[in-house]
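Q: My labmate handed me this sequence with no annotations at all. I'd like to see what the chain might look like in three dimensions before we decide whether it's worth expressing. Could you predict it?
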Amino acid sequence: MSGSVQVEQKQQQLCQLLEKQELHQQLETQQHFESSYYLSTRSSASRQAFSTHQTHKTSSHRLKTSVKTKKGQEVKLSPLPKRAKRTYLAMDKDKEVIGYVVPVFRANHDVVRGLMETQEEDATEEGINYVAMRNLFVRDAKEALQVRVEKKTRTKHVRESAERLQFDRTMEEWMEFRKKMNPDKLTHRPEFIVKPRGQTVWEGRTVRLHCTVAGWPKPRIAWYKNNVLIDAKAHPEKYTVESNYNMHSLEIKNCDFLDTAQYYASALNVKGEASSAATVVVKRYKEGEEEGLFDPKPHGFCPEHGVTFQTSIIDQFEVAFGREGETLSLGCTIIIFPTVKKYQPEVVWYRNSVPLKPSKWVHTHWSGERAVLTLTHLNKEDEGMYTVRVNTKSGFDTYSAYVFVRDADVEVEGVPVAPLDVRCHDVNKDYVVVTWKQPAVEGSSPILGYYIDRCEVGAHHWTQCNDNPVKYARFPVTGLVEGRSYVFRVRALNKEGVSRPSRVSEAVVAMDPSDRARLRAGPSAPWTGVIRFTEEDPTVGVVPGEPTDVIVTEATKSYVVLAWKPPVQRGHEGVMYYIEKCVSGSDTWQRVNTGMPVKSPRFALFDLAEGKSYSFRVRCCNSAGVGEPSESTGEITVGDKLDQPSAPGTPVPTRNTDTSVVVFWGASKDAKQLVGYYIECSVVGTDVWTPCNNKPVKQTRFVCHGLNTGLNYVFRVKAVNAAGYSQCSSTSDAVVVQAAISVPGEPTGVTQLEAVNDYMVMSWTPPLNNGGAEIRGYFIDYRTVKGDHFGKWHEMNERALTTTSYKAENLKENLFYQFRVRAMNMAGVSKPSVPSKALECKEWTITVPGAPVGLYVLEVRDTSAVVLWEPPVFDGRSSVNGYYLDIKDASVGEEGWKAVHEKTNKSKFMKVTELNAGTFYVFRVRAQNIVGVGKPSAVLGPILAQTRPGTKEIYVDVDDEGVISMFFECSEMKAGSEFVWYKNYQEIVDTSRLTIINKEGKSRAIFNSPSLEDLGTFSCVVTNTDGISSSYTLTEEGLLRLLDLSHEHKFPVIPFKGEMAMELLEKGRVRFWTQLEKFTPACQVEYVFNDAIIEEGKKYTMKFDKSTGIIEMFMDSLEVTDEGTFTFNLVDGKAKGTTSLVLIGEEFRELQRKSEFERAEWVRKQGPHFVEYLDFTVTEECDVLLKCKIGNVKAETEIIWSKDSIEIAEDDEDSKKIERKDGELTFNIGKISKQDTGIYEVFLRDERGKDKSSFSLTDTGYQAVMNELFRVIANSSTQIQVVSTESGIILYSMVTYYDENLRVGWLHKDAKLAASERVKSGVTGEQLWLKINEPTEKDKGKYTMDIFDGKDGVKRVLELGGKIWEEAFEEFQRLKAAAIAERNRARVVGGLPDVVAIQEGKSLNLTGNVWGEPLPEVCWVKNEKELTSDDHYKLKFEHGKFASITIATVTTADSGKYALVVKNKYGTEAGEFTVSVYNPEEEEGKEKKD
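A: Here is what I predict for the chain of 1490 residues:
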């Protein structure tokens, strides 16, 4: 090779090296932000490169190995690995290759955008430094390219080769220097210089976490709490985040126990991410048991609003019961005090301590006062403990109650109910595990298994996943399509059939778990990996390696589930898997999924032989081939690995409330994967077991609600896990459902009644809650008080007091004492009451009585209550002579007290009425003596005016023996409860007046000898209950009514539903009858006429129907001797009854005449007769018909019509009007007139008899027909319509037919219209009209058309005004103007012929008559050309009427079409005619030729 060629190659190599280096340095400024718009503004080359890439990225799939520079030199590019993706080329404006673009890391666009926004701050500074350094070294490189071309010897060539090597080393050093000087190379991932430190603080303090982070570009900082992003802007009252000069801080204010967590600081830029954690522990001042989520907590001061918020939850929801498919709402009223404007608490609902989120099943509403949770379409998943938590800035309050969801009714008796709680686990590309919980009720036979159904989201078709039912409550579903969403449901099966499907699961997407984690919306746990910037990994086309960690995750006798980890070497196209199995004892491996490899690292194998052992392994495959197998799992025996749980321990029930029982039991031993327990109950003696819960509970204690008070129940428990149910536990002992006995509440209202030198009398109010048992006594304590110093408490009585007052003796005069009281029942002693105020032991000198004591209330209802009290211990100077009862709404202040009555009440009780239901009231009593009124008693209440559900009142009844009794029932009897009767609220001790019988929740008080001594108010109180009582006031009037009723029962009378009645029957028969209301089968009847007993015979027929109680007596006819009194005497045991009917005088004779007439009618109807006699009707077409109905006729029966005694023969014209159809005869008169008047008759006769009917169509009859005709015509009239004419407005109505005798009147504004020239009315055909000529505004208003209908008349009304008037008047004016124009327009009215034939040489004179107003303009035209007057044409227009034309000496040229044209402002008209001029000689010549 020559030397020149070698030099040229050296130059080319040097140029290639320098240009590559230059282009590479230019490209480095853009390698991190391939798609960033702002970097594209820093370099035109990068802009062109990016646009070129976007435009041509799909134009060619072949990669170039070299390109040419602008100097024509060829530059070789780096070789690409086989099957690697193309490298994106960067071009300048001249299409010259200046470098290549390295793909940036794959990340979410939001993350990239955030990184770019962070780096914008330093873009200018980086650009200036970069451009300065680049220009410096590029200039030096270009100067080095200036070389000469010359011949070289071999020696020189060797020397230059050595120099070239030295130059290469120099260039490498230069490149290293440039890398150090390039600012882009200074970028690095975030690094924590100072990490946040963990802290331990007390509650209520503020914590601040600090850290310092270095990194370039400047990293972004985010704070996390337990891997959940902290949004400081959303919770400024809790968190404050600051970032200044790379120093970052998180401040947590007013720490509480829930702030104990691990906090992360996460820093992120384009080079990577780093995080650091710190633990914050919040300690309580109090030592003891750790508080739960809903444990009460003292409310703290809120510095933001300067108050301490107090929360009250009232109107609370109770334990609720619902049924599947129903909608259930829970609500409570929340009061926050004090009220701060624009501040609202946070209301959160929980189910089993898990917060609820709004969904299609759960709706929450907070109105600012009331919180409501609505559960739409209940399912058993909704069962549980519901809690409402009210969070304020001072703390929180909670309230909880249980919700039970019963199963919906099954469609087929005996099938199981639906399973519940269907969930999806381990979701992969084509695989998911579905789990569920077994239902509480298996049906009439055990559950054989379950069917699992799936449905794609958005579709409505369910596909069954398993052909054979599975008994294990866990099933792997395969065959899913990657990327699609699915929901699942489960159905249970037993011998009777299949249950309803469960509630559908949450939707899941069939995809790789790593893809799901990447696509999960919202921030997740801080990421501590490193973002790598690199080219595409050239691993496409590589056979994948073997999977690792192949294990058996589940093994049952129905299936085995394998799981493994994907291989490390798998390429970018992904891998799929083949599963192989080997039976124990052989070396043959069989591929399980021969048809299609699976995409997920999970696989379920079915159809394995139970009890056999298998080994399994997995191979990976992709487009390059199938990889090596994984390690074997070892031998796995097919069979259930999970056993059913053992039976729980024997349950122990204890009393709780009137409708609930608490059940405890021992946990199942060695139970694995326990789902929970189902509790069942049964009423003793029924052997019917009912589930207490429809959702399994995991704890070994459960409160069974919804039980019936007073019944004996036994309980049993069964455990459940995925393998099935355990055996039921042993049956518990029986327990009676009634409220548990507890210690009573604290007494209240400790007050002083009297004071002397060495003793004081104290009183108090019994506790509202007696703990379910009667209060057996009280203990009173005292202590001395000296200023602000309080002594120790001492007991005053060793034995319990049975009264609510006590005389505290042996006190020291002028010392101050405090007292408190404790109540006792059979369960124990209550907490002490609130101490009284400091009282001085000093003798009273007051003269008025002391305060009444022992106030209590009975018979509380919606609008009333009875208040009772005891007299004061201290009467004053004189005895008490009366009391005043005061009442007040509990929500108002002291000024709200008002007296219930004006006059003093002598009694020690009073019934307060006119209360408002649902309102709380308080009461107090004041005693009075001669001196005055004393101090009020301690306040009683608040008492809610509300009738308790199930409350019953005392009622009075009289039994069949006439015994008067009072009855009272109570369904809430408890152990030790008794009925106590009072009269005037004093316990009845004397049994001489009343006998009391109590039995099974019912009490009966029998009056031994009712008299005026028994008048008063009787009440009954049920002890050991929550004040169940009722009263009945027996007044003198009420007593007399009861005595009368008692007499009736002692001496009974047979009751009749009605007195004896009489009616006429066919043939004139007479029926006497009555009906008994109450009688026995032994009842006997005696028939009497005029005090003589009559027997059944020819004249009388008797009947007594004891099934209906109807007594009847029939007589064929009435004779003169039958006038008198008819009587029925009855005897039924000791009861008697009598009813009579008197038939005498005119009444008897009238009845006799009717009887004879009915008999005659019967005889008449034996032959042909008229069922309905001849009468008339008018049809809608106004035709008059004479009609009658006939009966009992034969073919030979004669039917003859006549008019005015003249028979209508068959050949008469009127015979055509006669019709007979279905026993109805019709004579169609048609449109009636005076000629149709007369008497019409119809005769019926044959061998059985004859009958006649007539109708007089004269005078009265004719007028009746006309009135009916007028009625039909009037009712056929339409509503009044409006039409306009040139002369005015016409109001009209259409009728079906008009008769000249019909009276029609018109009214305007309810005043009759008189006929005039301007207003006229009339009839045209079937149109009734009113014409208003030249209407004006006065014609507006209401128009009424009154059509006579034979009675009052039919009125049709039109309000002529508004739009109707405007449209009608406008149309009238338009028509009027058109008519005027038509009358006055110019026109030719005559005088002109159509054709004029004239001999040549003669003169023609024509005159036309002209009309028009105003006077028209006149002109003559010939062949559509206007003529002017001259010697040949003389045109005249005279008197404004006559227009003439004279043509002198006509010639053939004058032949043509002429017209007289007249014109004025209303129009134009032309009178046309034709002039034909002929020459006689020419005519003769033509004839000769012819």
